[in-house]
């Protein structure tokens, strides 16, 4: 049995995971793992654009974690402000 490459159409032996002609992944599972690993390696911090190809069956949108980090910083600043205000009020009332 043979596997036909999606990219170039070359017929490969069933035992191969990659096309012998162009190097494209032949199995859907291998393509999914490769796209996941590629997505993990790309680390654009803010405006990361992902273009969707209609022929790309394993498109996975990128999750953005920026808002969670900014909320944590705001909460830390608010807590520090409360502590400083509390110490100030304590010394103001003590005198």
Summarize the topology.
Blueprint: E1 2-4, E2 11-13, H1 28-41, H2 66-94
Antiparallel strand pairs: 1-2
What keyword list fits this structure?
6% strand, rod-shaped, 95 residues, 45% helix, mainly alpha, single chain
Note the run of SSEs as H and E: EEHH
Radius of gyration: 26 Å
Assign an overall shape.
rod-shaped
Average residue-wise pLDDT:
79
Number of helices: 2
Q: Ranges with pLDDT <50 over ≥5 residues? A: none
Helix content: 40-55%
Describe the model.
Helix content is 45%, strand content 6%. With 95 residues, it is mainly alpha-helical. It has 2 domains: 1-43, no CATH class; 61-95. It has a two-stranded antiparallel ribbon with strand order 1-2. A hairpin with a 6-residue loop joins strand 1 and strand 2. The longest helix is centred in the last third of the chain and has 29 residues, at 66-94.
